[in-house]
Amino acid sequence: GLRKKEVNVLCLGLDNSGKTTIINQLKPxxxxxxxxxxxxxxxxxxxxxxxxxxxxxxxxxxxxxxxSLSFTVFDMSGQSRYRNLWEHYYKESHAIIFVIxxxxxxxxxxxxxxxxxxxxxxxxxxxxxxxxxxxxxMDLRDAMSSVKVSQMLSLENIKDKPWHICASNAIKGEGLxxxxxxxxxxxx
Length: 188
Ligand code: GTP
Ligand code: MG
What we know:
Blueprint: E1 5-12, H1 19-24, E2 43-44, E3 59-65, E4 69-76, E5 95-101, H2 108-120, H3 122-125, E6 131-136, H4 146-152, E7 163-167, H5 176-187
Parallel strand pairs: 1-4, 1-5, 5-6, 6-7
Antiparallel strand pairs: 2-3, 3-4
Residues 19-20, 55-56, 75 line the site of magnesium ion.
């Protein structure tokens, strides 16, 4: 049959924002636990069991397939000491998922600094790659809305790349499918 298009997706954002939790939701082992399983279209390549999620050291690589695409997701650590690893993967990335903890008002300015650094990087600035934002942890009582998060991050200033923001609850898997469907449309 036809070879699936190979797509590298970089998952970025501050530590504790929920990147690994989001990516774990794409694994079929987790689907039965949740109300809205991700569509049958999303198949994980290897059979990874549900594990307790710990802060990522360095990064992890996960592979997923949809009907037309073969994804390699780079789940980067958001800890400050590892953020210098991010840029090594900019050149070969075809899409970015940027995760924000909507409840972390204190560090929203840090998230904005990291986003601005990313968008101004030589290897990203010139690329028209799609950027998907998850305003994650929407279940927290004091979570900011996705509109508020997008204002705090000045997303309206991103003119040269398609971008989209979704509110999400990675623990329940809510909001993830909408974002991933958008991303897939942009790439396909
Ligand atoms: P690093 O690997 O350190 O960069 O962090 P990360 O962005 O991968 O965050 P991780 O997925 O490890 O999640 C951090 C913590 O937030 C964990 O305790 C998760 O259970 C929790 N968490 C993730 N998503 C949500 C969410 O939507 N709501 C709530 N309430 N907690 C969440
Ligand atoms: Mg992680």
